[in-house]
């Protein structure tokens, strides 16, 4: 969501970039009906956009690839990288026992459940991908960017988000 002002009537607008069709170059102001030109610019790390008097609204590009999880190495776990695919992935500790896990992390971290988290990758209306993270009723819960995920809570992942399952740290990147 970005904030901008119409360059003609100066009404303040909130625009959900995910709802704009691909290839759009302008849209009509809901108040004065004048066209507001838009341009897609590369996203800068950690940048918040607040456009006040600009003649052009600047939008983030569509993310057309799925993300990946990187397991950060520690005493119990070596570095591992797992590409995510469209659909549901259940992520947890690798075990010889049967489970629904689709991404098995090789680790000796026993505080990580065998089916610890769930990530669902869905295509959005603009043809990009969104990644939805939830705890999979794990015994030791899940930390997302230093906050515990609540029961049935779902968050949308962004690049460089940190997920801690058990004592193992995962990093999400697009």
Runs in which pLDDT lies below 50 for 5 or more consecutive residues are 42-56
Which sheet architecture does the biggest sheet show? 6 strands, antiparallel
Distance between the termini: 19 Å
Helical content band? under 10%
Shape: elongated
- Looking at the structure, the CATH topology of the largest domain is Tumour Suppressor Smad4
Report the order of strands and helices: EEEEEEEEEEEEEEEE
Question: How many separate helices?
Answer: 0
The averaged pLDDT comes out at 83
How large a portion of the residues is in β-strands, by DSSP E?
A: 35-45%
Q: How many β-strand stretches?
A: 16
Total domain modules: 2
Strand order of the largest sheet: 7-6-16-15-12-13
- Secondary-structure-based class equals mainly beta
CATH architecture heading of the largest domain: Sandwich
Radius of gyration from CA coordinates = 20 Å
Written overview of the protein:
0% of the residues lie in helices and 41% in strands. The protein folds into two domains: 58 residues, no CATH class; 106 residues, Tumour Suppressor Smad4 (Sandwich), CATH 2.60.200.20. With 174 residues, it is mostly beta strands. Strand 1 and strand 2 form a beta hairpin. About 9% of the residues have low confidence. It has a six-stranded antiparallel β-sheet with strand order 7-6-16-15-12-13, with no helix packed on it. A five-stranded mixed β-sheet has the order 9-8-10-11-14, with no helix packed on it. The chain contains no helices and 16 strands.
């Amino acid at each position: 969501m970005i904030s901008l002002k119409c360059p003609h009537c100066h009404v303040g607008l909130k625009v959900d970039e995910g709802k704009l069709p691909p290839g759009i170059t302008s849209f009509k102001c809901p108040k004065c009906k004048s066209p507001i030109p838009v341009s897609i610019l590369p996203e800068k790390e950690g940048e918040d956009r607040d456009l006040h008097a600009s003649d052009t609204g600047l939008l983030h590009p569509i993310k057309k690839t799925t993300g990946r999880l990187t397991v950060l190495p520690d005493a119990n776990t070596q570095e591992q990288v797992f590409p995510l695919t469209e659909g549901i992935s259940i992520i947890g500790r690798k075990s010889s026992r049967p489970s629904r896990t689709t991404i098995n992390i090789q680790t000796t971290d026993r505080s990580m459940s065998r089916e610890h988290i769930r990530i669902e990758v869905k295509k959005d209306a603009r043809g990009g991908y969104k990644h939805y993270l939830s705890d999979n009723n794990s015994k030791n819960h899940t930390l997302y960017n230093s906050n515990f995920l609540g029961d049935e809570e779902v968050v949308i992942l962004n690049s460089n988000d940190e997920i801690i399952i058990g004592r193992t740290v995962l990093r999400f990147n697009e």
